[in-house]
Amino acid sequence: MVDDNGTAALVIDIGTGLIKAGWAGEDTPRTIQPTVVARVKKFRGEVTGPSGQGYDDQEFLTGTHAIRAVAEHPDDLELAFPVEHQEIVDWSAVTQTLEYLYAHEFQVDSDKHPVVIVDSPFSTPKYREKLADLFFRHFRVPSLLIYNSAVLSLFSTGTTRGIVLQSGESSSYVVPIFEGYALRHGIEKMDIGGDSLTRAMMASLDRTGMRLDVARDIKEKLGLVKNANDAVPEPSMQYELPDGQVVEVGKECRYAVGEMLFSPPSGVGLPRLLLNGIGKCDANLQTDLLGNIVIDGGNSLMKGFHERMNAEINALIGPGKPFHVTGKRKHASWVGGSMMGSLSTFDDIHITRQEFEDADDIVHKKYL
After folding, report:
1. Integer Cα distance of 120 and 85 in angstroms
2. Which of 11, 117, 305, 332 is 20 to 30 Å from the Cα of 227, by its Cα?
3. CATH topology of 10-40+61-155+332-366 equal to that of 157-191+268-326?
4. How many Cα atoms occupy the beta-carbon half-sphere of 3 within 13 Å?
5. pLDDT by residue (tens digit) across 87-113?
6. 153, 339 in Cβ contact below 8 A?
7. Directed axis angle between helix 270-279 and helix 251-262, to 10°?
8. How far apart are CA 77 and CA 60, in angstroms?
9. Alpha-carbon torsion 80, 84, 89, 94, what sign?
10. Residues 166, 301: Cα–Cα separation, whole Å
């Protein structure tokens, strides 16, 4: 999306685990930061940030700065997570995080650039109105587009009909899509995501004082998904902790995190969740949905994930039914937002600041 002055749009994905931001028309986000802030537990004059300033209890460090600061000052600072289950719960912290991105990562004035927001399929009209209020009233953006992340993931593949499986930080879910519209009656959700896997990894390693970000890194680098045709099981691996100590990550531990997505306590793993979503859609659409299964989210990057999905879908639907699984691209929903944000043909669904100021309910009307 480019406004009348030729100014490029910023594409922003405020996720539970990561905030991704960058310019529309580019292939990858310019910045990817953990969605985390550091807050002062008790003020001591020696606690300072990257520029040497002291902190009071109203000030924040964000992203990797926050993680580093808490590691250096664990008695003074603590981590807080301003987004839970894909919804902002601490608007002040997110506002300051966005202010930091505008001022330091992009070094631009917020009122000069349109914004595309990658939005959760589960957000409510009230939540979208609050997002619009933040960007129009606080950041004074010239125009705003709020779009469903699953639809954007599908759009990143160049198609508008299919089913998207997103396995993110807080949950995993499937969204059937027809001609660019999410079929809400077919959405299925499982409350297991990357955070669940990270905490399971941390519990399995059973090391007192292990930081969550370290456990997440171990999971992302060493986590596995088991497959029946694995000729030789993956071995145990060693991981060097930030303090120089080495921890042994056993093969059972490595496989256990991935198994949570395929054999959860509910008995409905990701392949069955996917087929349940397809089964709720009109029979005339089901062949098209099976023919374009798009997988997105950090958990899908685990070794063996796509092979297990293909094998289990094939076993569940039986022989003779064709299906196609794609989507090994990272940040697919952000990429879809980048593509959409660069198309002038989508001007009719943007909201301008003037439109918002003239009619507060325009967000509800456009994004119902």
Report:
1. 9
2. 332
3. yes
4. 20
5. 999 999 999 999 999 999 999 999 999
6. no
7. 10
8. 10
9. positive
10. 12
CATH 3.40.50.2300 is held by the domain 10-40+61-155+332-366: no
Segments in 206-352 forming alpha helices (H):
212-222, 251-262, 270-279, 283-290, 305-317, 332-341
Mean pLDDT of the chain: 88
Split at pLDDT 50, 70, 90, the class of 42 is low
Name the band, by pLDDT with cuts 50, 70 and 90, for residue 363. Answer: confident
* Beta strands 83-84 and 246-249, pairing class: unpaired
**Can you name the CATH fold of 157-191+268-326?**
Nucleotidyltransferase; domain 5 (3.30.420)
Which of 81-95, 170-184, 231-245 has the weakest average pLDDT?
A: 231-245
CA atoms of 184 and 88, how far apart (whole Å): 22
Q: Across the strands, what pairs with 119?
A: 148
Backbone angles phi, psi at 178, to 5 degrees: -130, 120
